[in-house]
Protein backbone atom coordinates (compact mmCIF):
# COMPACT_ATOMS: atom_id res chain seq x y z
CA UNK A 1 0.00 0.00 0.00
CA UNK A 2 2.78 2.47 0.87
CA UNK A 3 4.50 1.83 -2.47
CA UNK A 4 1.27 2.50 -4.33
CA UNK A 5 0.80 5.77 -2.43
CA UNK A 6 4.28 6.98 -3.38
CA UNK A 7 3.86 5.93 -7.01
CA UNK A 8 0.59 7.89 -7.22
CA UNK A 9 2.27 10.95 -5.69
CA UNK A 10 5.11 10.64 -8.21
CA UNK A 11 2.78 10.43 -11.21
CA UNK A 12 0.76 13.37 -9.89
CA UNK A 13 3.83 15.55 -9.33
CA UNK A 14 5.98 14.60 -12.35
CA UNK A 15 4.47 16.97 -14.94
CA UNK A 16 4.46 20.12 -12.75
CA UNK A 17 8.02 19.31 -11.62
CA UNK A 18 9.21 18.98 -15.22
CA UNK A 19 7.43 22.17 -16.26
CA UNK A 20 8.19 24.56 -13.39
CA UNK A 21 11.32 23.31 -11.65
CA UNK A 22 13.53 21.66 -14.27
CA UNK A 23 15.34 24.33 -16.27
CA UNK A 24 17.44 22.01 -18.44
CA UNK A 25 16.54 21.32 -22.04
CA UNK A 26 15.33 17.80 -22.76
CA UNK A 27 17.95 15.56 -24.33
CA UNK A 28 15.72 14.27 -27.13
CA UNK A 29 17.81 11.10 -27.45
CA UNK A 30 15.82 7.90 -28.06
CA UNK A 31 16.82 4.61 -26.47
CA UNK A 32 17.86 3.25 -29.89
CA UNK A 33 20.45 6.04 -30.20
CA UNK A 34 21.77 5.43 -26.68
CA UNK A 35 22.32 1.78 -27.56
CA UNK A 36 24.62 2.83 -30.41
CA UNK A 37 27.20 4.22 -27.98
CA UNK A 38 30.19 1.98 -27.17
CA UNK A 39 29.22 -0.93 -24.90
CA UNK A 40 31.37 0.35 -22.04
CA UNK A 41 29.91 3.88 -22.16
CA UNK A 42 27.44 5.63 -19.93
CA UNK A 43 25.17 6.14 -22.95
CA UNK A 44 25.00 2.44 -23.78
CA UNK A 45 24.37 1.48 -20.14
CA UNK A 46 21.66 4.14 -19.85
CA UNK A 47 19.99 2.78 -22.99
CA UNK A 48 20.24 -0.76 -21.63
CA UNK A 49 18.71 0.32 -18.30
CA UNK A 50 15.80 2.01 -20.08
CA UNK A 51 15.27 -0.99 -22.37
CA UNK A 52 15.50 -3.50 -19.50
CA UNK A 53 12.76 -1.70 -17.58
CA UNK A 54 10.71 -0.79 -20.67
CA UNK A 55 11.17 2.92 -19.89
CA UNK A 56 11.36 5.83 -22.27
CA UNK A 57 13.46 8.88 -21.44
CA UNK A 58 11.39 11.46 -19.56
CA UNK A 59 12.08 14.94 -20.93
CA UNK A 60 14.13 17.04 -18.48
CA UNK A 61 14.35 14.06 -16.08
CA UNK A 62 17.06 12.10 -17.90
CA UNK A 63 19.57 12.60 -15.09
CA UNK A 64 17.36 10.58 -12.76
CA UNK A 65 17.88 7.48 -14.89
CA UNK A 66 21.61 8.25 -15.12
CA UNK A 67 21.74 8.22 -11.31
CA UNK A 68 20.19 4.74 -11.36
CA UNK A 69 22.87 3.57 -13.78
CA UNK A 70 25.78 5.18 -11.94
CA UNK A 71 24.79 3.84 -8.52
CA UNK A 72 23.27 0.56 -9.75
CA UNK A 73 20.15 1.40 -7.80
CA UNK A 74 17.02 -0.59 -8.59
CA UNK A 75 13.58 0.80 -9.27
CA UNK A 76 11.52 -0.38 -6.32
CA UNK A 77 10.10 2.38 -4.15
CA UNK A 78 12.53 1.78 -1.24
CA UNK A 79 15.42 1.75 -3.72
CA UNK A 80 14.21 5.04 -5.22
CA UNK A 81 14.13 6.58 -1.74
CA UNK A 82 17.57 5.15 -1.04
CA UNK A 83 18.90 6.79 -4.18
CA UNK A 84 17.52 10.15 -3.04
CA UNK A 85 19.39 9.70 0.25
CA UNK A 86 22.52 8.92 -1.76
CA UNK A 87 22.06 12.13 -3.77
CA UNK A 88 21.43 14.15 -0.60
CA UNK A 89 24.71 12.82 0.77
CA UNK A 90 26.35 13.86 -2.50
CA UNK A 91 25.15 17.43 -2.02
CA UNK A 92 22.05 17.55 -4.19
CA UNK A 93 19.38 19.88 -2.89
CA UNK A 94 15.87 20.22 -4.24
CA UNK A 95 12.36 20.47 -2.90
CA UNK A 96 11.54 17.24 -4.70
CA UNK A 97 14.44 15.37 -3.09
CA UNK A 98 13.48 16.62 0.38
CA UNK A 99 9.85 15.66 -0.18
CA UNK A 100 10.73 12.12 -1.30
CA UNK A 101 13.07 11.68 1.64
CA UNK A 102 10.54 12.98 4.16
CA UNK A 103 7.61 10.92 2.88
CA UNK A 104 9.79 7.88 2.25
CA UNK A 105 11.26 7.96 5.74
CA UNK A 106 7.80 8.24 7.30
CA UNK A 107 6.41 5.38 5.18
CA UNK A 108 9.50 3.14 5.39
CA UNK A 109 10.99 3.52 8.88
CA UNK A 110 12.05 -0.13 8.65
CA UNK A 111 14.47 0.85 5.84
CA UNK A 112 16.16 3.69 7.70
CA UNK A 113 19.45 1.81 8.10
CA UNK A 114 19.58 1.27 4.32
CA UNK A 115 18.76 4.95 3.74
CA UNK A 116 21.46 6.06 6.17
CA UNK A 117 24.04 3.84 4.44
CA UNK A 118 23.07 5.30 1.06
CA UNK A 119 23.50 8.81 2.47
CA UNK A 120 26.99 7.90 3.71
CA UNK A 121 27.92 6.43 0.31
CA UNK A 122 26.80 9.62 -1.40
CA UNK A 123 28.77 11.73 1.06
CA UNK A 124 31.90 9.62 0.44
CA UNK A 125 31.69 10.10 -3.34
CA UNK A 126 33.04 13.20 -5.05
CA UNK A 127 30.21 15.50 -6.06
CA UNK A 128 28.71 14.24 -9.32
CA UNK A 129 25.03 15.06 -9.06
CA UNK A 130 25.46 18.39 -10.91
CA UNK A 131 27.38 17.08 -13.93
CA UNK A 132 26.11 17.55 -17.48
CA UNK A 133 25.66 13.85 -18.18
CA UNK A 134 24.55 14.40 -21.76
CA UNK A 135 28.15 15.44 -22.49
CA UNK A 136 29.44 12.28 -20.78
CA UNK A 137 27.36 9.69 -22.63
CA UNK A 138 30.37 8.53 -24.66
CA UNK A 139 32.58 8.14 -21.57
CA UNK A 140 33.32 4.82 -19.88
CA UNK A 141 30.84 4.07 -17.12
CA UNK A 142 33.57 2.43 -15.02
CA UNK A 143 35.83 5.46 -15.43
CA UNK A 144 33.07 7.82 -14.27
CA UNK A 145 32.33 5.61 -11.25
CA UNK A 146 36.03 5.32 -10.37
CA UNK A 147 36.77 9.02 -10.87
CA UNK A 148 33.92 10.11 -8.59
CA UNK A 149 34.21 7.19 -6.12
CA UNK A 150 30.59 6.22 -6.80
CA UNK A 151 29.66 3.23 -4.69
CA UNK A 152 27.26 0.84 -6.39
CA UNK A 153 25.61 -0.94 -3.49
CA UNK A 154 22.79 1.47 -2.78
CA UNK A 155 20.34 -1.24 -1.61
From TrEMBL:
Kindly state which keywords UniProt assigns to this record, in alphabetical order.
Answer: Ubiquinone
Highest taxon of the source?
Bacteria
GO terms in the biological process aspect are: ubiquinone biosynthetic process
Q: Any idea what this protein is called? A: Coenzyme Q (Ubiquinone) biosynthesis protein Coq4
> What organism is listed for this UniProt entry?
Aquimarina amphilecti
Amino acid sequence: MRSILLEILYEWSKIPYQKWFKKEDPWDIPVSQLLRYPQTSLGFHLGSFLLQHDFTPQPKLENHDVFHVLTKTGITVPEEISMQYYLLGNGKKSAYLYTVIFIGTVLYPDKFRVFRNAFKQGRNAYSFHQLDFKKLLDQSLDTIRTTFLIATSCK
